[in-house]
Amino acid sequence: MLTEKQEEILEAIWAAGENERHTLDAIKRRCVVEIYDDDLAGLEAENLIVRDDDRILLTATGSPVAEGVIRRHRLAEVMVSTLLRLKDENMKEMACKIEHALLPEVEESICTLLGHPEICPDGKPIPRGKCCSREQRIVDNVVVSLSELQPSESGRITYIKPGSHSELHQLIALGLNPGVHVTVHRTSPAFIIKFENTELAMDEEVARNIYVWKTNGSSD
Q: What is the pLDDT of residues 199-209, one digit of tens each?
């Protein structure tokens, strides 16, 4: 059983490695706790990391452990930004607390509830879990693809899984940001939504990449 500090260090090692940064300085810049030699020695003794001069790498044992920590943290960020509508530092602080308390079964339930998100609010990838590979769903999933809504059904945008960066920027430029309340006007012959004072037709493929928190039609 890892301590919270050990999890934070493994998370920082993984995050630095995503950018091909493996030095201790790069890892310390991404870690929310102070890292001492004893901390690294402990992880090394458990065969979770290996030190090579100034480079710190995850072992075959440590990599899936660190990946799990990263997954829980980024899922927590999606959850607190979606459900609690926290932003920036408040979101990160709350997510950091939640990640350490997520049991595997709770983690899968949250991931399924959120529609198996692939990116967190700041655009970083969320490692896939077993529930994602099974495409697990729950009855009356609260977060669904916009394309699954029927005419007159509504939802609040929680996140967008862009087909491309240009597509994402185009949607944002149109005002389709997380938090915006949308209503499906019709699905055939064209998929048309209404939001704020705008009526917009879009390809169903684009609608499929927009995920919403289903509502009863209220904009609250």
A: 999 988 888 88
